[in-house]
Amino acid sequence: MPPKSYFVALEGPDFDREHAEQLAVRLDLLPYTTESEEQANDLLETFIAKLIASTNAKDADSIVQWGVEAMQDSIQVVRTEEINIPSQACRPRQVLLSFDEYAPELDYRIGESDTNRSRSGFETKGDGRRLIDSHELILDWRPLWARFKGEIFNESTVTGQLIELAWTCKEYFPIDQIPSMLEEFVPLLNPETSALVAAIICAFIPTAEPRQFLPLVFQMAESFSSPIMWLYFVDLIADATERHTIFSSTSAAFKDVGMFTIAEWELLVSRLLTGHATQLLPFDALVRTDRMGTLLSKLRKPAYQPDAIAQIVIYSMSVDGPVKESPEPGNKQSLDSPGYVAGSKALDSLAQFITSKEVSFHPSQSSSITRSLTAMTESLSRRFIYRWTEEASGTCNTPQEQRLTKQMKKCFVELLCNPTLMAIFSKDGDTAARARGTLRNLAYLEADIVMPAFLERAYNGLEAINETHRTTAVLHALSEVVLPLVSEDIWFGGQKHILPLLELCLPGIDLNDPAKTVATASFVSNVLQTVPIMSLVGKKDAGGDDLMPSLVDSAGDLNVGALEDRDAERTMVIESTGLFEDWVRAFFERCLMLYETLPEEGGRSKKTGGKQEEAMLSSLREATEVICTQLSDDIFNSILNRVYDFASTNTKLNSMKAFCQLLRRVARSHPPQTLEKFVPLCVRQIKTELELGAASIPTTSTTDIVHSDTALLWHLSLLQAVMAEAGQALLTYREALLDLLPYLVEKIKSERSYSLTGSIIKTIFYGLTAVYCLNRQSLNPDEWRKASNDRTSHRKWGKFYEGHDVKVQWHVPSKEEVEFALEILERLTMPTLGIVEKLIEVPVASRDKIWRNDFVSMTSSSDRSFLSQYLCVRHLNAVTSSWRGLDTLINLYGGDALSEAIRKEYDVPELQQHPFLPLASMCLMDPEDTCYQTVLRYRLRVGTILQAAAQSLQVAQTEDHTDAVSTLINAIDTYLFHHGIKDETARRTRNAFDNGRRSWVFCRRQYDMPRNYWTKFAECDHQYRLQHLARCRPYSETDRALVFEVLQFCRSPYVKIRRTAQNLAQSIAQVSDTHAEYVVTRVLEFLQKDCQIDKAEKSKDLSDQIKGSLHTVRLGSLPSLAVNNPILCKQFFLSLLKLEYHNKNSIQTLMSTVFDLGIHALRQEVPIILPDEELVSDAIKELTKFFSVRDLHLEEIAQNKLSTRFTQLHDAIQSSFLEILEIAQRPTTHWRYAQMALNALTHMRNREIVPPAAYVRYLTNCTIHTHPTIRSGGRNGLDMVFYHTQIRTYCTNPQAKWTGDGHCRLHCKIRPKDIADFKGMATREVTADNNELYFDGTHAFSFGWVLWGDVFGHRPNTGSSPFRWEEASQPMLNEVRQVLKQDGYFTKLVGYYAEEPNTDPTSLDSRDDCVRWIHRICEFYGTEFFPAICEAIEPIWREDDRFKQRACLEIFAGLIG
Predict the structure, then answer these.
(1) How many CB atoms lie under 10 A from the CB of residue 682?
(2) More confident residue, 1345 or 603
(3) Residues with Cβ < 8 Å from 707, sequence gap 6 or more?
(4) Which range, 223-232, 1026-1035, 1400-1409, has the best average confidence (pLDDT)?
(5) pLDDT band for position 950 (50/70/90)?
């Protein structure tokens, strides 16, 4: 649907107003009052104040937290059409602060955070529109370039972050600085760096003035044969083309073809619209062939080439030549006629390309070329829609004569229609999917051209029973073009095809062909999502204009042909609706027949079939949900009776799960009618089965179903299904449920049965206390009621709503529902707590099978389909099951975050606490309320009992107790995480919403969508608030104790218990960094303690506990968090290295794996003391102009603790070095552990700290170690030590240490005019007196191939030594000198160089680390060791042995370099 005329701004205040209106619409959809704008502004001020204090204190963790919060809140704070000026003006200043914070290198986390914050401020997710006008903010590119220049060849994470930040901010760099940028970038160019230079140009150059860089780009493209460079330039040209077309308001800005000259366009066509373009490898494959591929893989990838090509072609289209007829498919003679297709040179070039490649679209020609072609056609059609809808708005800036025309649109669709209709039948999945996407877009543009031709093929495909693939392809394609079928606005005449197509697709529901069943269900769910399923035959006409306004386009033309008989067409549609009821019954019959023939449950997970069968059942669930939602009352009653007949006459285990999922969908659409049918039946049958002895065998784990329990399980499943989101309807059965639930808890003993009982309890509580949407139909409730009696209501099929027109019906818990929930809680849940306490007191020796069954049934509380936990049966089973359904019963206050106070001496508490808990409609919010206090008291009692049970079972860990312990861990999971909503639940809902959204989004800034889109959107917003509430919930001492018990269970000797506890520990750690810090600290303490006991007391074997700790510490991001914390880093490596005494291979292998994870996660070095940047200070001043309150007291506290933090971090690093070094130097340390210690020491480096003398002495001794890997590690470690010494010597200020902007005193910077100028300077004789410079041919940032940049020459040395190293490093250098002076050092070194390698004996490639070590010796000690080196190589340089010859060459290379 085209956007409104005022929804066109790409950036600035107009877009801000649009964004504000959409946010207000989303908030209005929620059933409760959210925070006011004043509260949001106050919160923003708090975030900004804490961000400033964190920045002044250089607190990386707090900068990340508060920077993200401030940016998100400033984006969300504007809620009305009246723009909030302070928050709008504040946003550019926040981005400026984020950008300037990264000028010196802070922590890697700040770099990532600043990039994300800048992106959040500049644009919104989806179409790249900017919240900040490019005229509101100007950023200086030079500090970022200086920072990037120092990291350009390091291949580090920081390099990728810097280039990402530049790419995000480039449109805010000054346009007049483009020549200066190119003067900095182009000197880097040589045949090996062409792709890198292209990546830098694309990342930094703003695209607002393309004529300033296009000539250079085209010259480089012609001069260098680099596919990667071309990919980057195509991306840059594509962005520039779109921006130029959208923002150019006069025709004078346009050239021959869009913004290109004829010569430039011909070059583009020769590169983009030829056969070579379809055979180009993807970027990931190309970088592996480039010499700088490792570095390029760290940088941002260019845009997908087909999409970039489409962007260039579509935004270059305009009427720029004479018109000729569009070429007919297969008729190449028409290409020779004068003129251009639709008068557009760009469209004509595209037509020639597509026509020449048309044969490649045929299904028999499927290949990689076809995949590239269909990807291109999909991008072309999508980009055409984008531009067409943008120009359809009334305030588009593009000049009228440069816009697309209707003739262009028609020719464009005709050009792509026939190739697409061939490609949808391809047997290659990617090709067919992209072709279907193209078909969808073309049908949206010109349905009159596309749909008749497609339906002709569709009917043939559905009627042909001997071509299964063709039928499946048609069904998939039909699901993509449902909007033209159902909407008169898109295609008049499509609605009469809906029922015939639905009837033809029914045979597609086939258990033997899951793929076809999935395709059928997808078509059914998509086509009926906006079609009310009701019969209109015999209904009255509600009146109205015969010619609907929607059938008239913007130019006043009809959307239907002159020969269409609209009344006859509509009569056919109305008469076809009389078949709806028969079709729905047939659909349900096919589903029930499929369910009856499903295979029996199998495997450990008890699933019905494999992945294909599960996908088939999932698609059918989605289809039945759509159908049940859209049913009219009379048809629903008919379907309900059929479903009830099936349920009351069958008890089949193979179909139980699938049928109950269908019943759940039926019940959600009409809860009262469904409950009235099923509750009496289920209650009666359940009681009968229990009286006959069903579920009387005690079990605590999943087993095969006892056939005598089949009827009980069937009716328990039915009861659970019909109560899903029943809400108020449950109050009718209050007494029946209060009577049934205690009876179930008392009687049921088998795991299958009490799992279902727990699910019933959870479903009841959720239905009573949760907030959820009630009405998901395609029309608003008042319109739905009118449509059921309106003969012409079919005109509303496919109706789209804007957000403010949608009326969402919510279930908000009433007082009666809350009272009912509390009554169940009091009468069913709480009385059993005393029984659990008594069971805990039972002596370990007396805990038999009956005890374990009682305990498990008391404490388990989850749903197998949700968290794979046991569900409750008897007694306290009701407790934990209840809390799983009471996520939103009360709002928790008080307590503190789960954090580890390892830095309490220098942490500022005010910067660690989160001040905001969003409003999310919890049932009980007032802490003074009696009901609130009662529920809170119940919850605390549950936590206390769970803690006591955990401590009791810690003592008695035997194999018989594994089920009980696993169940207890799952109960703790319920207690800790079932408040608000779990992340995985919200994530699953959001993913389902995003997947469904793609079916209805055609253009950017599309704000009219189907009604169920808005209801799901509102549910996602509500769940996001609950998710935020759950993440920020406080932790009491009981909660902390339970987390500690879970971490204890992670060390259990039983694998089942360990894995269950470790999964929960990982969930706890994923909440936030503070939670992860707490977990990893405790686990490392356990590991150290276990190592001490295991080593000291040989009689105790703690191998299983050690394995449990190692498996826990390797979870998720825990190794990364540990090694990047200077204090935890020491504990992490020392805890692992102390396991050297253990000779079990399993522990050694596991420890090695964990150690490698830590090494790989160890980030690049970060500064200890950061410079006070003037840019940051100025940005803070700009930001504080818009706030009246600034927390100066908080800033003072943070500043005072700054020196304490730096001192402790410095001491931690030094202490870590010494202790790990001591382990590495022990004579008893195995070489494997010595290698690990050396690896850790090498990575725990920092350029600001002079390493201990003992460390460099150890590294120097390692260079002549007997083990080759340790020798290599010693050489690499010393190379880094010497490099840092150079940095500290040459860099005159703290910032220069991190940008690498420092040079020797003999260096002199010049900039040659041209190659002749440089050649003249480089060939002059250099003496000590003539002040000429010597050039050694290495110019890291200027190669002179195209343009000369800064080149460093060397003055002649007149002193005794060319280098004067810093005084602080002299003791360290003397330690190295003493080792080098040892007798026989260089003899051993040369001997090891000349050894035959073990890894690759056939390779004779030079080893860079060997060359660099000799080079470093000569660089730092001059000619001091030259005689010793010559003496060492004298015996071998004349020998013929190839490895000795290589050693000599490596040494000579080091000496010469």
Answers:
(1) 26
(2) 1345
(3) none
(4) 223-232
(5) confident
Instruction: List, for residues 546-593, the tens digit of each pLDDT value.
Output: 433 344 444 444 344 433 478 888 889 999 999 999 999 999 999 999
The answer on pLDDT for 349 being more than 70 is yes
End-to-end alpha carbon distance in the chain? 67
What three-state secondary structure class fits 533? strand
Sorted by sequence, the CB contacts under 8 Å of residue 1433 that are 6+ apart come out as 1390, 1447, 1448, 1451
Rounded to whole angstroms, how far apart are CA atoms 1257 and 197?
Answer: 41
Q: 860 with 871: CB under 8 angstroms?
A: yes
Quote helix, strand, coil % in the chain, to nearest 5: 65, 0, 35
In Å, how far are 506, 917, 977, 1037, 1112 from 897, measured between CA atoms?
A: 55, 13, 14, 11, 21
Q: Is the dihedral of CA 29, 33, 38, 41 positive or negative?
A: negative
User: In sequence order, which residues have a C-beta less than 8 Å from that of residue 223 and are 6 or more positions away?
Assistant: none
Segment 26-44, tens digit of pLDDT: 888 899 888 777 777 777 7
Spatial CA neighbour of 876 closest among 832, 823, 842: 832
Report pLDDT digits (tens) over 1198-1222.
777 776 766 776 777 778 788 888 8
pLDDT of 190 above 80: yes
Q: What is the pLDDT of residue 411?
A: 94
Other beta carbons within 10 Å of 711: 16
Q: Is residue 1132's pLDDT more than 80?
A: yes
446-486 pLDDT, tens digit per residue, is 999 999 999 999 999 998 766 778 999 999 999 999 999 99
CB-based contact 971:880 (threshold 8 Å): yes
Residues 994-1003 have pLDDT tens digits of 888 888 888 8
Q: Decide if 445 contacts 385 (C-beta within 8 A).
A: yes
Say how far apart CA 1171 and CA 1294 lie, in whole Å: 6
| Distance (Å, whole) CA 473 – CA 1291 | 66
Q: Hey, which residues does 896 pair with through a beta bridge? A: 1035
Burial (0-12, 13-18, 19+ Cβ within 10 Å), 193 = buried
- Give the rounded distance of the alpha carbon of 964 from its chain centre: 37
DSSP 578-637: GGHHHHHHHHHHHHHHHHHTPPPPBTTTTBSSSHHHHHHHHHHHHHHHHHHHHB-HHHHH
User: Residue 712 CB: number of other CB atoms within 10 A?
Assistant: 28
What token pair was written down for 1265? 């170690």
Going from the C-alpha of 592 to that of each of 512, 584, 613, 711, 868, the distances in angstroms are 15, 12, 15, 18, 27
Q: Model pTM greater than 0.85?
A: yes
Say if residues 1362 and 1328 touch (Cβ distance below 8 Å): no
Instruction: Say if CB 997 and CB 788 are below 8 A apart.
Output: no
Structure tokens at 1361: 């030594």
Lowest mean pLDDT among 29-33, 248-252, 503-507: 248-252
Q: Give the tokens for residue 1358.
A: 């007149």
Question: How far, CA to CA in Å, does 139 sit from each of 151, 182, 1335?
Answer: 21, 17, 36
Per the CB < 8 A criterion, the answer to whether 221 and 234 are in contact is no
Closest CA to 420 of 450, 444, 447, 446: 450
The residue that leads in pLDDT, 1232 or 475, is: 475
Residue 844 tokens read as: 């370990």
Question: Which has the minimum average pLDDT: 804-808, 1235-1239, 1303-1307?
Answer: 1303-1307
Residue at token pair 């999964």: 1063
φ, ψ at 611 (rounded to 5°): -65, -35
Name every residue whose Cβ is closer than 8 Å to that of residue 73 and which is 6 or more positions away in sequence: 40, 43, 44, 47
Residue 127 makes CB contacts below 8 A (sequence gap 6+) with 1004, 1005
